[in-house]
Amino acid sequence: MFYGTRLFRGVERKLHAKGYGIHSPFAFAFITGVIYADDTYYAFSDIPSVLEPNALEEVLTVNENNRLSFRVVRFFKPRSVLEIHSGYGVNSLFITAPDSRIHCVSVEESPEKRAVANQLQKEWGRSITTETALS
Known about the structure:
The protein is mainly alpha-helical. It has 2 domains: 37 residues, no CATH class; 92 residues, Vaccinia Virus protein VP39 (Rossmann fold). It contains 6 helices and 3 strands, in the order H-H-H-H-E-H-E-H-E. Strands 1-2-3 form a 3-stranded parallel sheet, covered by helices on one side. Helix 6 links the parallel strand 2 and strand 3. Helix 2 packs antiparallel against helix 4. The chain is elongated and about 60 Å long.
């Protein structure tokens, strides 16, 4: 009997982990349609083509966090985004990819990273501003 209860709880936890059992329609849509989505978008192939010609290929890589940022911005549809510690600017490209009207303000203190980010942003052609600090 004890084993059956543990098995049921394990199955229940597994289902809840993917969003099932969540009562809020907003939270369910966010979890299933954004966090656990495995959809492929055009930006997932367009942005790596912008990154390839640059010299810092080992640093300028695309990861799942970049794709998640794209899906979150696509879900909420903001007009402006503040990104703090933007690094080399790869995530800024994903943030502005869902809509050409999105304006992203990126804050990065490192001059080396900011220079690479500015070059990527010029090649990408979207509205991204890089700042050294918040004022």
